[in-house]
Design a protein that fits this description.
The chain has 306 residues and is α+β, with helices and mostly antiparallel strands. The protein contains 8 helices and 18 strands. The two termini are 25 Å apart.
Length: 306
């Protein structure tokens, strides 16, 4: 990477050696060699287009959930996606939430609920951005992004600006066409379907989902769900059945509350997470023949850990 090229383009927006741990939900990881804030979808698109044209590697950071950043940090440009404008469009049965990709999904869902719109109550328990949820087909309580996405606006590396519908997103469990082709597109904004509902019932559902989350998911820093659920089963149930709740490596523990959440007890490193994750994977495969697939992404330099 040519730092002079970056400074010429981004000037004072460009920061160097920015710690990332406090920008992730696991609270671990090293620094970004270069760091930018993108405050709206237009700026995000312009930044990405420039970096692609100059063949400069980059990573887009949202809320910091579902990722594990290496202790060695990230030797590229990290764009912190702070494009968070949310707009509710009221059109009868065709109403929708239009949200930029850096908007927090919980915020978008709650704004719809406060206006008496139903459909996104399940999303009020999911940490992360709208873009991350669209990219990974996030879901909870029997619902998922696949059921509620109308359109997603993207910048594609070879095709420019495109709008994709749900079918074109090629959704599957916790995956999408964009996720299966990493680095080829960036999500700019999304349109989520909603409809008028009963305010009291909407409030009841949100409270019910919130209570269930508190009862089943541990507090404290973590990646989010560590593994995808195997077909017809639960990763947490499998790990629990092998007596692995409470297993520790360094400062990370398999939660005694829910075995698919690995909690940072305050002194964890990314290496601790990496080693505990692989320990659990190995034991589960040895005992059951099931190879648990991570639900998160590894970010940064992991050569020493591999």
């Amino acid at each position: 990477m040519d730092e002079k090229v970056l400074l010429k383009r981004f000037a004072q927006r460009l920061k160097k050696d920015v710690p990332l741990a406090n920008l992730t939900t696991a609270k671990v990881g090293g620094a970004a060699r270069y760091f930018l804030n993108a405050v709206n979808a237009a700026q995000l698109a312009e930044d990405v287009a420039f970096l692609w044209a100059e063949e400069i590697p980059f990573f887009i950071l949202g809320s910091g959930s579902n990722i594990l950043v290496s202790d060695a940090g990230v030797d590229c440009v990290v764009i912190h996606n702070k494009a968070n404008h949310i707009h509710l469009v009221e059109k009868g049965d065709s109403s929708y939430v239009q949200a930029e990709s850096g908007a927090i999904l919980i915020t978008a869902a709650r704004q719809a609920a406060l206006r008496g719109y139903t459909g996104l109550e399940w999303a009020t328990t999911i940490p992360g951005t709208v873009g991350g949820a669209v990219y990974g087909n996030a879901g909870a309580y029997g619902a998922s992004m696949q059921q509620h996405l109308l359109l997603v606006d993207i910048l594609h590396r070879g095709k420019g600006c495109l709008s994709l519908n749900t079918e074109q997103m090629g959704y599957s469990y916790r995956s999408s066409a964009l996720k299966r082709e990493p680095g080829m597109a960036v999500i700019l904004s999304a349109r989520l379907a909603i409809k008028k509902g009963d305010k009291e019932r909407i409030k009841e559902l949100i409270n019910e989902f919130s209570a269930r989350r508190k009862q089943t998911q541990p507090p404290g820093p973590c990646i989010g769900s560590t593994f995808k659920n195997p077909a017809g089963d639960s990763a947490g149930r499998i790990i629990d059945s092998l007596g692995l709740k409470g297993t520790r490596v360094g400062g990370v523990q398999v939660s005694p509350m829910h075995a698919n959440f690995f909690v940072n007890e305050g002194s964890a490193s990314a290496r601790d997470y990496y080693d505990l994750i692989h320990l659990v994977q190995r034991i589960v495969e040895e005992k059951t023949g099931i190879k648990l697939e991570p639900e998160f992404e590894l970010i940064g330099d992991w050569k020493e850990q591999a």
